């Protein structure tokens, strides 16, 4: 897992799975401390599991309680389905993607 900060956006590269959750959690919470309106870009993430999505949902809830905002960007259809099936889409904000012509 590679993590790259670009302004208020945190870009993840690789697989976001249980084995990488701790590293992502630490980077995400540190990033939220610096950027009250943060975005996690998953466009370069091939695999996301439920453990990782639950961690992101917990960070999102915490951000909201602290008056901050956390949103996901670049979610693949499989990630959107997992968010819907797990009902984490009620907790995690997912940015809309423009419709291609």
UniProtKB/TrEMBL annotation:
Residues 1-101 form the STAS domain. It comes from the Bacteria. InterPro entries: MlaB-like_STAS, STAS_dom, STAS_dom_sf. This is STAS domain-containing protein. It comes from Nocardioides bruguierae.
């Amino acid at each position: 897992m590679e993590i790259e900060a670009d302004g208020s956006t945190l870009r993840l590269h690789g697989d976001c799975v249980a084995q990488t959750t701790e590293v992502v959690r630490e980077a995400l919470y540190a990033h939220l401390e610096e950027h009250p309106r943060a975005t996690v870009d998953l466009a370069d993430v091939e695999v996301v599991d439920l453990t990782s999505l639950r961690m992101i949902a917990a960070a999102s809830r915490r951000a909201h309680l602290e008056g901050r905002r956390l949103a996901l960007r670049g979610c693949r259809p499989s990630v959107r389905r997992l968010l819907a099936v797990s009902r984490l889409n009620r907790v995690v904000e997912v940015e809309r993607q423009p419709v291609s012509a």
